[in-house]
Write a structure and sequence with these properties.
Elements lengths: L11 H9 L4 E2 H11 L8 H14 L2 E3 L14 E4 L1 H25 L2
Antiparallel strand pairs: 1-3, 2-3
Length: 110
């Protein structure tokens, strides 16, 4: 994963994972969220997703939830949630994308 904190662009997959985790989700729900939001353009395999989740945990951008959305611990499905640092990273990426889009519209018209 080539994501950088120092002003570099996030990969599209990383950005979608972070967005998906504003509400707690387990791995399969993250895959469904991304596929749905991109109208099937992005479809993640389990290996890709869980590798990315591990890296995002190491960076401190996401964390496993102690309890699921119903307030119960569920040992079978590990749920994740974006951290405050992850939210800051996602917000920075949104600003970067808005700036890029504004410049493109200025140049290309529209």
């Amino acid at each position: 994963m080539r994501d950088s904190v120092k002003g570099g662009a996030l990969t599209e997959v990383t950005f979608y994972i972070l967005l998906s985790l504003y509400d707690p989700k387990h791995g399969y729900a993250i895959m469904q969220f991304i596929e749905e939001k991109t109208s099937g353009r992005l479809v993640l395999g389990a290996g890709t997703l869980y590798g990315a989740l591990n890296i995002l945990q190491e960076k401190g951008w996401i964390a496993p939830c102690e309890k699921n959305a119903r307030g119960k611990t569920e040992s079978r499905k590990k749920e994740y949630l974006i951290t405050p640092t992850g939210k800051e990273i996602a917000e920075n990426e949104l600003r970067r994308l808005c700036e890029l889009t504004a410049i493109a519209k200025e140049i290309m018209g529209g």
